[in-house]
Write a structure and sequence with these properties.
Largest sheet: none
Helix content: over 70%
Number of helices: 4
Structural class: mainly alpha
Strand content: under 5%
Shape: elongated
Number of strands: 0
Distance between the termini: 11 Å
């Protein structure tokens, strides 16, 4: 990660303000996705017409935990990639130099 710049007195353009709102939506959706993935396994295991202890134990053994773990690990990467793309798009616009510096820092992972 690059050294994060100090940017003061930054005024965002309307397009940057919209991009920041989009980033907030992406982060919220990523958090929701992680919660849904986490709970979906339990729902799959323990729901059905009749819950039977033996059947539930069988479902737990049969569940593809590795695929679930991969999906859980991928969620933050998806969010980071989407934020990177939003920041890249903003950095390519005709905006003030300090605003471009801000978006470049976001692309590089500065928070």
């Amino acid at each position: 990660m690059a050294t994060c710049p100090t940017i003061s007195m930054l005024r965002f353009s309307h397009s940057s303000q919209a991009a920041i709102e989009e980033i907030k939506r992406v982060q919220k959706a990523g958090n929701m996705l992680a919660r849904v993935l986490g709970s979906s396994v339990l729902l799959k295991i323990f729901t059905g017409h009749r819950i039977q202890l033996q059947g539930s134990a069988h479902n737990i053994v049969q569940k593809d935990w590795e695929l679930w773990a991969q999906a859980m690990r991928a969620t933050p990467n998806i969010v980071r990639r989407r934020i990177y793309l939003i920041a890249f798009k903003q950095s390519q616009k005709s905006i003030a130099n300090d605003e471009r510096q801000f978006w470049t820092a976001v692309m590089e992972g500065c928070t």
